[in-house]
Amino acid sequence: MSLSGLSALRPLLAEIGDAKRLRVAAASGSLAELAFSRAWARLAEGEDQSDVALSETAAAVARARLAGIDAGVLAQAGLTPQQSLEVLQRGFDEVGGCVEVDLRARLRAALPLVREADEPPELTAVLARQPRAGATCPGVPRVIVEPPESHADHCFTVAAYAVLVSPLVGSDPVTPFLIGLAHHLHNVVLPDAGFAGEVLLGSHLLPVLAALEARELAALPAPLADRLREVLLLRADAEAPASQAFHAADVLDRVLQVHHHAQAAAFTTAQALDDLELVHAGPVQGFHHRVLAAAGL
Fold first, then answer.
1. Are residues 275 and 241 both part of a single domain?
2. Residues 175 and 106 placed together within one structural domain of the fold
3. For the whole model, what pTM was predicted?
């Protein structure tokens, strides 16, 4: 196992995680929740799991900069499929240079495979409504951060992270993607009280989690359920490469989420005006500066 590439990958992971907080007018939910739902729908239809894992991760990379601009939007605007693909590839290329070279080529080639599917399993809508507890600790009052992420947000983000981390630990990309998508099936029923709540469940914790997970798996198409039962066993430790990819992705997402809240709380006007050039170059930039100066801003 070599995690030396994680520091180079981290900025991209943080941008991918921002899809939890990005939305579009045409659909309800964050962009991460929409991708979660679409990935599950494609898997439930029986689509090749490798195609789903690679194409949805590739779309997540492109979305880091393009946000809600996707092939469907570009088609409505009159672009041909090839023109739309070129836009998505430019978005992918702008941030994808840190991805391991062979995986980067596979992801880029999979971009055209993203497609909408029929109705996703009901679990996707419930997990999009089920908020995560955030950081909790036994015996200590919880810290509330607003808005909370959903379990759909977290699960899709972990799945995409796991694909990107997989070459660093010698894992195939598909298995940890599937683990990431499915590792909170128990939260379809179980509200999230965090680590503090898990400790209070005591000896009931593992039976409760197992029973609720089995309930959701039983409602899925049999081939998909069988595959998920197999891969979810890898959560038990961090020995196998796929286990390492999943657990690395899971902890990275949990900590990057906390970093997001800390950064948001510390955000300053100077960062927007100076670092991000909120009043950006253009034919009216000079006028904008005069307006702000006159207003004392």
1. no
2. yes
3. 0.90
137 has which bridge partners?
140
Q: Which residues pair with 131 in a beta bridge?
A: 150
CA 250 to chain centre: 10
Do 287 and 189 lie in a common domain?
Answer: no
Q: How far apart are CA 106 and CA 116, in angstroms?
A: 20
Given a contact cutoff of 8 angstroms between Cβ atoms, the answer to whether 69 and 31 are in contact is no
Whether residues 40 and 175 fall in one domain: yes
Q: Which letter, b or e, does each residue of 133-165 get, where b requires 16 or more Cβ atoms within 10 Å of its Cβ?
A: bbbbeeeeeeeebeeebbbbbbbbbbbbbbbbb
Within a domain: 141: no
Task: Please give the Cα distance from 275 to 272 (Å, whole number).
Answer: 6
Which pLDDT score, from 0 to 100, does residue 283 have?
Answer: 86
Are 194 and 286 in the same domain? no
Report if residue 186 sits inside a domain.
yes
Identify the bridge partners of residue 150 per DSSP, sorted by sequence position.
131
Do 280 and 262 fall into the same domain?
A: no
Q: Are 69 and 87 in contact (CB under 8 A)?
A: yes
Whether residues 213 and 275 fall in one domain: no
On whether residue 137 sits in a domain, the answer given is no
Round to whole Å and give the CA distance between 131 and 142.
Answer: 14
User: Do 274 and 185 share a structural domain?
Assistant: no
**Lowest-pLDDT range of 92-101, 147-156, 187-196, 251-260:** 251-260
Q: Which domain holds residue 282?
A: 270-297
pLDDT digits (tens, 9 = 90+) for 146-175: 788 999 999 999 999 999 999 999 999 999
What is the tally of structural domains in the chain? 2
